[in-house]
């Protein structure tokens, strides 16, 4: 993976991409809250005939410091990365809060998106959420601030992942982030995500959900999302909230199948209905 960056005016944002000689499509992968681009390490070798872009979302990883975060700005940063690479058509995947960034991108730039993969994410749109259910996110930073940071990192990693390798990977990304920047990211993202209406996708959508995901009401929201829209819901077995890392072999096969179907449909000139 080749490391690059863009200067956004709000901060420098880093991204990584491979350069396969022949590839089916481009896939941009966006990590969730308090993770970084390493969340997708187990996808890189398996998806070797796909041009892959990973990045550190603003306020995360190496994309710090960063001022004036919003998902609109994150989507604009993604567009700037694509413009820098000369990419005008791609598939995007977003894990957890990374899915919010992709949904806003899909609203702003629907003509660029060939497909969207939600990984243990939830839909934008306040009608999905009860006020009692968002109490936790509204006050999460206050609760998180009370804990010793290594204790917080361990609890968060154990909650997000089912298997020890996935837990350790997320734990290490949290340690790299540090407590002050963790709180800033949590505060910024949870304050912003409720500002957006539901996105009506103009491309195929696949919802992926770990069968042991126990973060908030994520399983409930995915069921509601699928039922309300008809989007396919794929359950990733033996996996938690970081399902792409917990059960990477299964997840990778799901992604390969989804992209193959997109490619086949485009070659035949077929329209796709969700």
From TrEMBL:
Domain AB hydrolase-1, chain residue ranges per copy: 26-124
Gene3D superfamilies from the UniProt entry: alpha/beta hydrolase
Gene Ontology CC: membrane
Pfam family, one: Abhydrolase_1
Domain of life of the source: Bacteria
PANTHER family the UniProt entry points to: HYDROLASE, PUTATIVE (AFU_ORTHOLOGUE AFUA_2G14860)-RELATED, MONOACYLGLYCEROL LIPASE
Protein name, as recorded: Pimeloyl-ACP methyl ester carboxylesterase
Organism: Dielma fastidiosa
